[in-house]
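During the no-cost extension, the postdoctoral fellow (Dr. R.K.) reprocessed legacy sequence entries with the updated structure-token encoder. One reprocessed record is reproduced below for audit purposes.
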Amino acid sequence: MYWLELAGEEDAFAAAEAATAAAGVTLLAPGVAGAGSIDGAAIPRLAYTRAAHEALARTDAAVDAAVAALEAAPLDRTGTVAVRARNVRNTTDVSTSAAERELGGVLVDRGFDVDLDDPDHVLRALFAAGERTAHDAVDGADGGEASVCTLGWVAAEGARDFAPKPTDRPFFQPGSMAPADARAYVNLAGAAPGRTLLDPMCGTGGLPLEAGLVGADAIACDAQRKMVRGTRENLREYVDATADAPDWHVLRGDATALPFRDDAADGVAFDAPYGRQSKIARHELADLVSGALAEAERVAPRAVVVADRDWRREARAAGWAVAAAFERRVHRSLTRHVLVLDGRAGRHGAVTDRD
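Re-encoded structure tokens follow.
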């Protein structure tokens, strides 16, 4: 059993991304989830998971309850330790310094030496309380009240090794996506070492960049020559600089008529043009997105679509099942709609439409 320390403010979205690197993810409290198992190599690639902790105990969000739980927990480790406590989003009245002091005292009483600078093991105590978010695609996201303290040994931590912010890249255009968001979207689309991710509307290359940085091969297309050139420039700068750099290809192409064979990719992710762009090249926006969804379903079993509106009807018409749908507020005038899509029964296999 593991505890997941979520990042950001959107727990359902963070838990969904975490499920690409962990099994049995269940939301426990604001900013805290549980998992039955983890892929320790995949946790560092996540955008919205701070760390995964090997579970020791779970109790109410109170220091005395945490102390009692630690006293009763089996401790099968040797070496030096440190305790790090966190009051998640300031949702409790717990003093983290008091929690660290008292929990550290328990460890000392049980024979451990404390090393705050370079410990062999870090005990993480997460205190969280309040209402869980509600979302039907995430286990435990039921809107119920929670009061939780999780105790666990830190097993894996997020690396947050994203590409630089868009304005610091060689090629930039206004409206580019934040790196952490791009990382989460490619993770949800299945990007990982040994897999291939396709972005048929790559723009400045934010999604292919993050796919390449997690070790996936990347294929990118765009209808505009300047975007093709710019994406190549960004990929050369950052992906080619990584150890064992994956393969990538960028070409000019039409997202509604991709020059790829069936099942050419393991996942597709794209950021659809927003409403202010009512016509794109020779396509109306609705025709462009519908056509891109149909082509994506032909070339991959999974897709993530980011847009300024809900394209679920068009996704279903293209043969997809909607595994999850999220609304993510960017600023006052923009809320991103994120669809996680799975192939239906037939060519890609059966899934359940849960939206």
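The CA atoms of residues 134 and 143 lie 5 Å apart. DSSP finds eight helices and 19 strands in the chain. The remaining legacy entries will be reprocessed before the final report is submitted.
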